[in-house]
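[job 4471] stage=fold_predict status=RUNNING
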Amino acid sequence: MSIKKYNIVFLLFLFGITYSCSQQLNQLSDFERDSIVLCNMIPVEISQLEIPQTDSFSCVISHTGFTLMYDETHKQSAWVAYELTKQKTTKITGRRNRFTPDPKLKLKSPDNKDYKKSGYDRGHLAPAADMAWSVESMKESFYYTNISPQILSFNRGIWKKLEDLVRIWAVENEHIYVITGPILDSNFTNIGDNKVTVPEAFYKVILDYTLPEIKAIAFIIPNQKGEKILYEYAVSVKEVEEATGIDFFPQLPDCQEEIIERTLCKSLWTWR
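[job 4471] inference complete, writing structure tokens
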């Protein structure tokens, strides 16, 4: 066979494979196509990937272990974001229950009086257990900018189970990004003289941006006693964006961000 004929046959062969693969992809669901793209996605180097979209008017505060955006209207943070590595899950300091105003906050801060006899727990957004890798980060986790009113059975029940599970995922995946915050309804109640808003629900967004499997998962859980298992509260990142108006992972390349945020693949995460 001549070289010319060989090249033609080879090109036809490649076209046949490409067409066949294209036809197979067209027959897949959107979820299946997204899953294939995720499996073949290559991470790029990005600093502070966990920080949501902000503007010049946002009250953003950075601490040793986490960064937050404070919402003055609701007297709590709209989000608290941090990296959680396998190494950081190693506890080197004990829990301290000294809740104090954030010294970096220049606005009016909630205080102990707002929560006293309110019937609500002082619930952490970035869990104290996630900050036990440093004395300073543990101290900062008890600032009121990291606290939100939570129903006792929620804080010590389903929410604690989720926090524990996230630490397991940090160990299994070596490095994850975590963003947590309240979902604030327009018809809210508040507590204390500072009128701290009581959220109707809370969200948590987790991103594993490492090989071999880039993946993201999120949760929206009502601020009440959990009636379902964690698996059933899982949602896509996109659903949390729609519920909060927050743009997560804006530094990702657009083509990656769209697929990561709309794809929910629960089977890529361990459940216990």
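[job 4471] summary: The chain has seven helices and eleven strands.
[job 4471] exit 0
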